[in-house]
Write a sequence for this structure.
């Protein structure tokens, strides 16, 4: 392939912003599963704040669903498709199909855990802001 051909196709390749969107799209189902598991544990709890925790968890789940929907829609508009591609050792792989190109995208499990933790912290902080605003 000549230099010119490579330049002509460079616009088809996935951008850094799109790669971030793909990463988030991959992580959101994991976050949803973790929140769901936590909500199920809470349902069997005798904690006096159980209802408040359940409501906060459900609000976070709604936000996760909304973010997933928006990312799916945005990726589709950009002609990007993401499919699971298995796991090897400590890495989870996905195939990214982007405007005629295909690449294998791998994320290390510890990186995934860190990103999930950061995202959950962000969602929780958003709920905290809403609650603070309500009680001013």
């Amino acid at each position: 392939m000549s230099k010119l051909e490579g330049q002509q196709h460079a616009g088809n390749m996935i951008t850094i912003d799109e790669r971030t969107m793909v990463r988030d799209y991959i992580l959101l189902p994991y976050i949803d599963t973790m929140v769901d598991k936590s909500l199920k544990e809470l349902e069997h709890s005798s904690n006096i704040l159980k209802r408040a925790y359940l409501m906060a968890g459900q609000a976070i789940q709604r936000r996760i669903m909304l973010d997933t929907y928006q990312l799916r829609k945005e990726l589709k508009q950009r002609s990007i498709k993401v499919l699971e591609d298995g796991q090897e050792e400590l890495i989870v792989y996905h195939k990214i199909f982007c405007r005629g190109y295909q690449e294998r995208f791998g994320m290390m499990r510890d990186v995934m855990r860190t990103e999930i933790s950061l995202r959950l912290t962000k969602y929780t902080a958003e709920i905290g802001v809403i609650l603070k605003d309500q009680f001013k």
User: Anything to note?
Assistant: The CA atoms of residues 76 and 87 lie 25 Å apart. The radius of gyration is 19 Å. Confidence is low (pLDDT under 50) at residues 1-9.
